[in-house]
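Thread: quick sanity check before group meeting

JM: Hey all, I'm pulling together slides for Thursday and realized we never actually wrote out the predicted structure for the chain we discussed last week. Dropping the sequence here so it's in one place. If anyone has concerns about the input, flag it before I start.
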Amino acid sequence: MINGRPPKPNALAALAGDRRRKGKGLDLPNAMPAVPEWLPDDAKAEWAGITHTLSAMRVLADVDAIALAQLADYLAKWKKAAEQVARLGLVLPIRDAGGTVVSFRRNPYVTMHLEYGLMVQRLLAQFGMTPSARARLMNGEAQATDNIFSRIASVQVGGS
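JM (edit): ok, ran it. Output follows.
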């Protein structure tokens, strides 16, 4: 297992304004990978939405097909698990032979929903699709944007 933060792809590093990365690593052309035929239909629907977003971000390459397929598949499964949790509830009743509820147990779809959610979150971060991943992409100019709350705080502190 590799320790530390994985390196950013060149396209993401360029968006972040990282000049140190110039000329380092692979510089793959922006391309829309073809949806794998083996991907289930519900995951193909997720693929369409994900690739639309990533294409607009200009960070896609053909070599991303497998990671995108994983993301689309996990996202579809995460949504299915959420539907089952909504339908069945968080806990399921355990009944005795007479049909009386004697205890409760966690709905297995709750665990599945949590596990798929973690996988989706990890993959989203790899593609720069989470707030924290985007925050790391912002360059110094974008981070220095004027914020009304910081102006109010500085006026109150300076005016006291």
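AS: nice. Residues 10-134 form one domain. The longest helix spans residues 65-88.
JM: adding both to the slides.
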